[in-house]
Structure formats: structure tokens, C-alpha cells
Amino acid sequence: MPADPPEARPPTSSEALRAPDGPPSAAASAPGIPRWARWTGAVAVLLVVLVVAGSLVHLPYYTLSPGSSVDVNQIVHVRDGQSYPSRGEVLLLFVRQRSRINVWRWVQAKLDSEIDLYKQQTITGGLSPAELEDRDRADMAISKFTAKAVAFEHLDGALPIDRPGVRVLWVYRSYPAASALEPDDVVVAVDGKAVSTPEAVANAVRARKPGDDVTITYLRDGRRHDARLRTVANESGQPIVGISVVPRYRFPSAVTIDTGNIQGPSAGLAMTLAVIDELTPGDLTGGKKIAVTGTIEPDGSVGQVGGVAQKSVAVRAAHPALFLVPAQEAADARKHSGGVKVVGVRDLAGALRALRSIGGAPVPTTSTTTLATAA
Fold first, then answer.
1. What's the gap between Cα 366 and its chain centre?
2. Contact 214, 180 (CB under 8 A)
3. Model confidence at 13, in pLDDT bands (50, 70, 90)?
4. 301: helix, coil or strand?
5. Poorest-pLDDT segment among 28-32, 152-156, 308-312
6. Which pTM was predicted?
7. CA-only gyration radius of the chain, Å
8. In Å, how far are 65, 96, 117, 217, 307 from 113, measured between CA atoms?
9. Element containing residue 90 per DSSP (H, E)
């Protein structure tokens, strides 16, 4: 190996002040690049290095930034029943979420009051990106089902249920159930005991300990199957196999909601209102444009969402007559909505009252029941 170069010795004070003996060398006397030009070039190179490094280095943070809106009336389709096109709009609001941002996006988030910055653990809870996406898609699937069920129950009363068993709505890809079950399978028994409600499935699985085996009996295309699955612990330490199951409701008509790549549960209230609007004569919004955010729960209650400040940016751009938000987040929405009228609501009935106050068509009220359960 070559020897290390000798350590440079700092000059003494006399060496630092005294010119070297002898005639000047050719290199010293020849005209060269001006010092300012050399400094400018060095700074430019340094800036390029910093820009590239800032783009390539990713940090364990997420950002929530303003998104846009979609008129849910345009993505709700009634296939085999009477529908009533609306003159108004029910705007579903969404935000843009970015994961593992680079240094420059982190700086942008720090400087921009409309972008929220979160530590990765806060968003993911320890889930991998694939698991997080799977959970968000499941949340949207559950939200769509719940929105339709709450809307139909509000209009028609208790929905008839097909027996036996419960329907598999979602199978989580990284959990044991993914090896056997599929959406639309009908679970009829757990460990040989018949089940007829989502709660019965969940309770039977939770009677085990994480790591225990459980046998799920299900129907697919009319044929009966058994799947022996090893339970795993969820975030709360409870045993699960990785499915969401719902009652086998017979809806009065087939309704689809095409949300595209929008994920998560926060569109629940908007979808419920849009389904009701499509299924009833008259305009639920009074022919006006309204913006809506909030989850919808099986009992018709409205739950909190994230990113209200960012959604309010889309509200300012859309200029709706009304902005419906969960009651707990109304104050935050008013701070950022640019003067748009904000009404906080606690349930579907409250949302319908708010719409009546701006000229919306009246809708009768009935009760709702328990819908989706995870196991």
C-alpha cells in the first residue's frame, strides 16, 4: 500500500508574510483565471451538488397538501332502479399525500402553511407502504358499502338480509386470509359454529389467541369450503385473520360509486348524500353546489377526518354555497375556507337539516343498523 502523504505543516508567521526567494516561476507570472471566476465556478458546483443531494435524499416524513374535488353525483350510478339526476353538486374533497419526501419537499412543507408535515410513524403506525395502501383501499370499500346501506335504510327502513352467513367485503393482502378467501365469499361458520352477523364472525375469531388456528367455512359459487388459518395480532394485540365482513343486504337497486384512485374513509358522508340525491325526486342541495367531508358510520353518525385545512383550499376554489364538516372540525374549517359558509354536523340527520336550510328537498328519516366488522 502507498504510504500516507506527509502531514502538511502550517506556515510560521514569518513564512506566511515573506515572499519566496528567487525569481517568480512561469506559472506564477502567467495570466490565469480571475479569482472571482474561480469562486463563482466553485459555488455553482456546490449548488448543483446540493440540489441533486436534496432531491435524492428521502426523509421519514409524509406531507398532506391541498387536493381537489369531485362531484359525487357524477360518479354515483343506479343500474336497475329509478334515479333522479340532480341540478346541484355534492363535492367530495380529497387531499394529496406524499410519502418519504425528499429534502426540498420537507423545506417546502416547513415554509408553506397549507402543507402539513407528519412523521412517518404517525401516518403508517408501523405498516409498510403496501399494507398502508391496502388499508386505505379497504377503508374506501367499507365507506362505499356503509354509505349505500345508510342511504337505503334512511329511505326504505330496515334492509332485508340474505341468509345464511355474512359477505366478505375485503381481504387484506398481507394477512393469512389472503391465501384462501376472496371478496364476495360468504362466511357461514367459524370453527364449526354457524354465524349470521359480522359481530359473530369477529367474536369467534377473537376468542382465540394470536397464533392459534381457526377454521373459516365459506360458500363460493354455491360450493362449501373450509379454510384453516393461523391468526395474527393486530395493532391492538387482538387475533385476526385479515378480512372485513358485512351483512348480506339485498339493496332495492344496484348502486355503484366510481371513486377511482381516491382512498380512505373521509368521503362517506358525501357519498351517502349523493346516493340519497340520486334515489329521490327533487334536489337534495336545492340545485346548489355544496362541499362535504366526513366519514359515515353505520348508525348514521359523522366521524372526523384529516386534512381539513388542505380540503378548505379546494373549497375556496370551488365557491360552494355550503361546506359540511364533522362538528369537531368546524372551527378549523372556518379558519381556512375563505368565508364560505361552514356547518358542522354530527350525523346524517344534521346534514339533511343543513341542506334544507338552503332550499334542499325534504327527505324522510328512519333508523340504521350495524354494518361492517373486521375479523
1. 30
2. no
3. very low
4. strand
5. 28-32
6. 0.80
7. 30
8. 10, 15, 10, 52, 12
9. strand 89-98
Which of the 8 DSSP states describes residue 73?
G
The closest alpha carbon to 77, from 278, 344, 369, belongs to 278
For CATH 3.30.230, list the domain ranges present in the chain. 66-159+252-374
CATH number belonging to domain 161-248: 2.30.42.10
254 and 78 Cβ atoms separated by less than 8 Å: yes
CB atoms within 10 A of CB 103: 16
Q: Which residue has the cell 370453527?
A: 191
Q: What span, in angstroms and rounded, lies between the C-alpha atoms of 320 and 312?
A: 11
CATH (one of 3.30.230, 1.10.760, 1.10.150, 3.30.460) for 66-159+252-374:
3.30.230
Q: Taking Cα atoms as reference points, which of 55, 158, 52, 143 lies closest to residue 92?
A: 143
Strand locations in 260-368, DSSP E? Answer: 289-292, 295-296, 302-303, 322-326, 342-345
The pLDDT-based confidence of 372 (bands split at 50, 70, 90) is low
d(CA 287, CA 309) in angstroms, rounded, equals 26
Instruction: Give the three-state DSSP class for 172.
Output: coil
Secondary structure, 3-state, 241-285: CCEEEECCECCCCCEEECCCCCCCCCCHHHHHHHHHHHHCCCCCC
